[in-house]
Write a structure and sequence with these properties.
The protein is an alpha/beta fold and 369 residues long. The relative contact order is 0.12. Strand 11, helix 11 and strand 12 form a beta-alpha-beta unit. The protein has 14 helices and 13 strands. The longest helix has 18 residues.
Length: 369
């Protein structure tokens, strides 16, 4: 029997493992082969254990180089023609754009997921205009486009990037509610505040540092910990030397990113994400599932996970004082109110972000094809 192949195209192997391991498992359990196209990294060997086939594509996730991108399109097209997939699932900007175009050339349906608009959309300039143009041209060939928040969906419609009504909303990448289960912290005087994510300016790192300085002048028992990836391929990336400088000054503690974040999440009292814009942030979803109160910016994506005044607080974007005010507000809450906020986070995770429900959205669409 000829088993149908589902191709997943992503920018990096690590991201496939981080965000799509459970989806891959679910697709295979439903009787399909899974083939992944992504750039190689230190996690490729681990990915080979959970997929049927892997092919490397040379993908630089930032910037637009016409020659390299044409070669990338040709390589994806060549691979897809050889694989002859039943359907192609594209994630992140370049895979969505070039994966959709290559899928069209071999007449394979493409299901795209807009995981967030990224730096290319947040910043203005030539790259922004090029990305919009490429989206406008290629997304018309999509079988379906998933958006992780209604703001991005409406934004694409307003810009007429999407002209047909072939879009649906999906609750981010979802969360494994059993793996990320609540852990009640003992009542303590110290307040541990945690950020997890890429160490780039677009995540609001500089605003967080300024807010930490304000808070630490007022409270002696507050710790700010940043866990994340330094030196990532992004034009707003923050250097290791800058991080070291903040650590030396006692503003923050720093932990390099770990694949299993449950330990550091479980030990935190509050999780913050002062990002400029998100799809639906996995960090906040996992923190919510572990019953953590949250503070994030009042921007697309973050609003999907933080119900202001219920399971946390929203602050103004690119505003250190607003962030500091909301952190101060949290610190001054009594213990029982903080616990109740965490329980509301868990309730939201159960109702909205269960990874089984999220993955079933993809499975149902694949089966309908």
């Amino acid at each position: 029997m000829n088993i149908k192949s589902v191709v997943i195209i992503y920018n990096a192997t690590h991201h496939v493992l981080l965000f799509k391991s459970e989806l891959i498992k679910s697709i295979r359990e439903n009787g399909y082969r899974v083939v992944v196209l992504a750039s190689k990294d230190n996690y490729t060997k681990n990915l080979l254990d959970i997929v049927d086939e892997f092919h490397e594509i040379k993908l630089n996730s930032s910037g637009v180089n016409p020659v390299k991108d044409l070669i990338l399109i040709f390589n994806i097209y060549t691979l897809l023609k050889k694989i002859n997939p039943f359907v192609v699932l594209n994630f992140t900007i370049k895979p969505v754009i070039y994966g959709t175009l290559a899928s069209r050339l071999i007449n394979a349906p493409a299901i795209n997921t807009i995981t967030g608009l990224g730096t290319a959309f947040i910043s203005k300039g030539l790259t922004n205009r090029i990305v919009r143009l490429l989206y406008s041209f290629t997304l018309r060939f999509s079988h379906l486009v998933f958006f992780q928040n209604p703001d991005d969906q409406q934004f694409f419609k307003d810009l007429k990037i999407i002209s047909r009504n072939n879009t649906k909303l999906i609750s981010g990448s979802g969360v494994d509610l059993l793996r990320f289960s609540p852990k009640k912290n003992k009542k303590r005087r110290e307040v541990k505040i945690l950020f997890i994510g890429r160490i780039i300016a677009d995540k609001g790192i500089k605003e967080l540092i300024d807010a930490a300085k304000i808070i630490k002048r007022e409270f002696s028992d507050v710790t700010f910990t940043l866990m994340g990836m330094v030196g990532v391929n992004n034009k707003t990336s923050i250097s290791q030397s800058q991080i070291d400088n903040w650590v030396e000054k006692g503003i923050i503690e720093f932990i390099p990113f770990k694949d299993d974040v449950r330990g550091v999440l479980g030990d935190s009292d509050l999780v913050v994400l002062p990002s400029y814009r998100e799809g639906t942030p996995k960090t906040l979803i996992e923190a919510a599932s572990m019953a953590k109160p949250l503070i994030a910016t009042d921007v697309p994506g973050c609003r999907e996970v933080v119900n202001d005044g219920v399971n946390g607080f929203l602050c103004k974007v690119k505003n250190s004082n607003s962030l500091a005010n909301q952190i101060r507000r949290f610190i001054k809450l009594d213990y029982s109110t903080k616990i109740e906020m965490g329980l509301k986070s868990r309730q939201l995770a159960v109702e909205k972000f269960d990874i089984v429900k999220v993955n079933n959205c993809y499975i149902n669409e694949i089966k309908q094809i």
